[in-house]
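Q: Please design a sequence for this.
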């Protein structure tokens, strides 16, 4: 039986930095469930507004900070999407934080597709960006277009990221010209670790500062919708952020960037040994996880698990 005489008020409003739309339906006429469960007279239904590259650009114009985080699988992608993150980056950092290799160079296109597919299945609101791995776009424009296409077609990403400044301008344009959004990445570019001689802060002297500014301009002119600034002095990042009309997303680049990105496993404290100055650890999941597994081992050894409630 449904209640008659609906008297409902529907309001929609935009809430906070998460950008959620909240639809509030209230009034005495709210329907009752057929089986007798009465629904609340006033309830809230959160409807997530999908983030696109247009919202990312608009956030810079509105002075709203952009949040980006990495994820590599379904459960963590669900966690970060539900938490209201704006952009999920399926980073080639998958090499260092998931595969246990010392740098990102061995990561392949097929591995990135495998991980991005899982992430994309959990995505409801966030923009999913596919990080093009080493040697998937450097060899030729044709190679870059083919692989950027695979990221969208096979992995269900919505944009790709690639490393490099003026040297990659043509590649960025070629991909953007086939309607695939590109995020740039300058400063410390981990795929260039051997040329850079290690993971070092970039743009500390006048020459390299100027080069960074040139790179930033080239990436914007080539058509990128945003650019990551990695390990750049805060003042240089500020100058770039003020100079560009596209958003800058910083990691180890200070407070003035339009947005911030962290590697999820660093933020969650899954690697106690990996201490990086640019990271703030918001949880200690390594410790929590280890304790939980120790407790399981103990209870099995002591014949306390499974209990009657876990048995059939
Ligand atoms: O691969 C990655 O996780 C990245 C971020 C650190 C920006 O490129």
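A: Design:
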């Amino acid at each position: 039986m449904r209640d008659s005489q609906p008297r409902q008020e529907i309001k929609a409003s935009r809430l906070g930095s998460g950008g959620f739309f909240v639809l509030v339906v209230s009034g005495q006429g709210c329907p009752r469930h057929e089986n007798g469960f009465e629904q609340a007279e006033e309830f809230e239904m959160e409807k997530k507004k999908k983030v696109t590259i247009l919202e990312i650009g608009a956030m810079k114009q509105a002075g709203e900070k952009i949040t980006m985080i990495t994820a590599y699988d379904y459960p963590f992608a669900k966690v970060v999407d539900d938490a209201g993150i704006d952009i999920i980056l399926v980073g080639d950092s998958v090499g260092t934080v998931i595969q246990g290799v010392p740098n990102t160079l061995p990561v392949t296109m097929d591995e990135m597709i495998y991980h991005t597919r899982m992430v994309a299945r959990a995505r409801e609101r966030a923009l999913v960006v596919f990080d093009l791995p080493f040697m998937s776009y450097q060899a030729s424009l044709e190679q870059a277009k083919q692989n950027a296409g695979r990221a969208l077609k096979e992995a269900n990403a919505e944009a790709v990221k690639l490393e490099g400044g003026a040297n990659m301008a043509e590649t960025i344009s070629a991909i953007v010209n086939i309607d695939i959004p590109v995020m740039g990445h300058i400063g410390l570019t981990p795929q260039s670790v051997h040329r850079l001689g290690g993971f070092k802060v970039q743009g500390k002297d006048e020459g390299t500062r100027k080069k960074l500014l040139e790179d930033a301009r080239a990436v914007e002119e080539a058509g990128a919708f945003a650019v990551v600034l990695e390990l750049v002095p805060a003042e240089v990042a500020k100058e770039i952020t003020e100079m560009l009309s596209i958003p800058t997303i910083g990691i180890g680049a200070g407070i003035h960037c339009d947005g911030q990105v962290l590697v999820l496993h660093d933020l969650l404290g899954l690697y106690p040994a990996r201490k990086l100055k640019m990271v703030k650890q918001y949880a200690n999941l390594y410790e929590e996880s280890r304790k939980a597994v120790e407790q399981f081992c103990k209870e099995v050894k002591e014949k306390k698990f499974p209990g009657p409630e876990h048995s059939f």
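Q: Thanks. Anything notable?
A: The longest helix spans residues 206-222. DSSP finds eleven helices and eleven strands in the chain.
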